TrEMBL record:
It comes from Methylobacterium jeotgali. It catalyses: (6S)-5,6,7,8-tetrahydrofolate + formate + ATP = (6R)-10-formyltetrahydrofolate + ADP + phosphate. The gene is fhs. GO terms for molecular function: ligase activity. InterPro entries: Formate_THF_ligase, Formate_THF_ligase_CS, P-loop_NTPase. Belongs to the formate--tetrahydrofolate ligase family. ATP binds at T65, P66, A67, G68, E69, G70, K71, T72. Pathway: One-carbon metabolism; tetrahydrofolate interconversion. Keywords: ATP-binding, Ligase, Nucleotide-binding, One-carbon metabolism. Pfam families: FTHFS. This is Formate--tetrahydrofolate ligase. Its EC number is 6.3.4.3.
Length: 557
């Protein structure tokens, strides 16, 4: 099998206008970025409002492991498969961040014969959306410091400026810095730091905004500092929102690309799936729902984080509801959850698979508790055995009463996921129940955290440190008590210990800090050792990325 980049490079892509025509987007609504990428005009997006929505399919996954799950690959494969069986399907994905691309994870354009293309551009600069978000965030930082420098009319307490800087790269050296050194002309020295761009609240706001007016209003609500008498200061107070919206105007138009099979895909936005809600933009999702009969989208990480945030934050704010949910699992990953070392995954081990099944079981149960129909998509790896797949299907049926479909889209493209597509259509066109959220809007913030921890994580209790508890009380006093909770927790476990795999129970979820994301419209609960600026691994992917003699990118995958 050729590498991902070789497969993508060998594909014959359709001109983007042909892809757009398939879903009724006219030439005049496209802003082309070369032959195969275009942005869709704001005016055309607004004209879609009166159209009925198609069916929304959410793709999520078990708790991720180094063995690989293939959530994005399955999303792309399912979209292609739905089109193959005669459904008009559009895919809606997040944009990749440069940090993971040059770090450990690699790109986020799918894999094998289930990719979105042109994959090099998508994984690197694409249409410049992340650069625009970085610039808007940096403009806000500059305006805050400039306000303090010139008389500080708002009486901002420089010890309580919450707005950090961002860059779209993994750079641990920037986590904590001292700024404004060098004398009076450079401002007031203070401690500061950088987050990765995808962790910026600007990114979260960008992805939850309905349109440009909503974007500017949300930006204005972002709390960036406190005064000396502890009053909140917003971006609107420092007059940043107009100029920031100007910088984001073009970026807010969703990006249209295609799959290897020429089917339409909207790729737009990409909030950090820990510190934010980890979903593509509301604008892209809603546009896809208007353009097709089926929209296939994905949530970040495992279902305990990604699907929960998609349902409790994005769906709540945008008025969305999935018609069906696909939970992606692999035999390899379940064996790791059952205690098998990564080096031993090539050997058949039905016993470990059955032990690790507890992780999938909890994810399926959690999603069902939201009132949603579920199917398990088993992403096939070449070393899997028939006995392992048979056992997994039997466990899904006997313990959960759900169907598990073996999918070979990585090797076969959409043809390898037709069985999954048929199962999804059956669920989506069957009986639908109301969406049941994990907690009520009116509940106390601490009770919302406890509900997520106990209902979805299997925790026995929640321990909120005194500083965090004080902040929650302040948020409620200031009128933010009705906001949903965005849990920032390791993706590798239902607990805060990434090494505790499977489906632990009775553990304590420790909340060490909380942050207010008033513009995005949620409160972040930081659990364990989550960082908002990743570092590079000992051997980063960047070591092997280069241009070959023909000027083509090598080593991206």
């Amino acid at each position: 099998m050729p590498s991902d980049i070789e497969i993508a490079r060998a594909a014959t892509l359709k001109p983007i206008a042909q892809v757009a025509e398939r879903v009724g987007i006219p030439d005049e609504a496209l802003h082309n970025y070369g032959k195969y990428i275009a942005k869709i005009d704001h005016g055309f997006i607004q004209s879609l409002e009166s159209r009925p929505d198609g069916k929304l399919i959410l793709v999520t996954a078990i708790s991720p492991t180094p063995a690989g799950e293939g959530k994005t690959t399955t999303t792309v494969g399912l979209g292609d498969a739905l089109n193959r069986i005669g459904k008009k399907a559009v895919i809606a994905l997040r944009e990749p961040s440069l940090g993971p691309c040059f770090g450990m994870k690699g790109g986020a354009a799918g894999g094998g014969r289930s990719q979105v293309v042109p994959m090099e551009q998508i994984n690197l600069h694409f249409t410049g959306d992340f650069h625009a978000i970085t610039s808007a965030h940096s403009l806000a930082a500059a305006l805050i410091d400039n306000h303090v420098y010139w008389a500080n009319e708002l009486n901002i307490d420089v010890r309580r400026i919450h707005w950090r800087r961002v860059v779209d790269m993994n750079d641990r050296a920037l986590r904590a810095i001292n700024q404004s050194l060098g004398g009076v002309a450079n401002g007031f020295p203070r401690e500061d730091g950088f987050d990765i761009t995808v962790a910026s609240e600007v990114m979260a706001v960008f992805c939850l905004a309905r349109d440009l007016a909503d974007l500017e209003e949300r930006l204005g609500k972002i709390v960036i500092a406190e005064t000396r008498d502890r009053k909140l200061v917003t971006l609107k107070d420092v007059k940043a929102t107009g100029a920031m919206t100007v910088l984001l105007k073009d970026a807010l138009q969703p990006n249209l690309v295609q799959t290897l099979e020429g089917n339409p895909a909207l790729i737009h936005g990409g909030p950090f799936a820990n510190i934010a809600h980890g979903c593509n933009s509301v604008i892209a999702t809603r546009s896809a729902l208007k353009l097709g009969e089926y929209t296939v989208t994905e949530a970040g990480f495992g279902a305990d984080l990604g699907a929960e945030k998609f349902l409790d934050i994005k769906c709540r704010q945008a008025g969305l509801k999935p018609s069906a949910v696909v939970i992606v699992a692999t035999v390899r990953a379940l064996k790791m959850h059952g205690g098998v070392d990564k080096k031993s995954l090539g050997s058949e081990n039905v016993e470990a698979l059955e032990k690790g099944f507890a992780n999938l079981e909890r994810h399926v149960t959690n999603v069902r508790n939201f009132g949603l129909p579920v199917v398990v998509g088993v992403n096939h790896f070449y070393a899997d055995t028939d006995a392992e797949h048979a056992k997994l299907k039997e466990l899904c049926q006997s313990r959960l009463g759900v169907e598990a479909i073996t999918c070979k889209h990585w090797a076969e493209g959409g043809a390898g996921a037709e069985g999954l597509a048929q199962a999804v259509v059956k669920l989506a066109e069957g009986e639908q129940k109301p969406l049941v959220h994990a907690y009520e809007t009116e509940a106390k913030l601490s009770d919302k955290i406890r509900a997520i921890a106990t209902k979805l994580y299997g925790a026995g209790d929640v321990q909120i440190e005194s500083k965090a508890a004080g902040k929650l009380a302040t948020f409620e006093k200031d009128g933010y008590g009705s906001l949903p909770i965005c849990m920032a927790k390791t993706q590798y476990s239902f607990s805060t210990d990434p090494s505790l795999m499977g489906a632990p129970t009775g553990h304590v979820i420790a909340v060490r800090d909380v942050r207010l994301s008033a513009g995005a419209g949620f409160v972040v609960a930081i659990c364990g050792e989550i960082m908002t600026m990743p570092g590079l691994p000992k051997v980063p992917a960047a070591d092997t990325i280069r241009l070959d003699a023909n000027g083509q990118i090598d080593g991206l995958f």
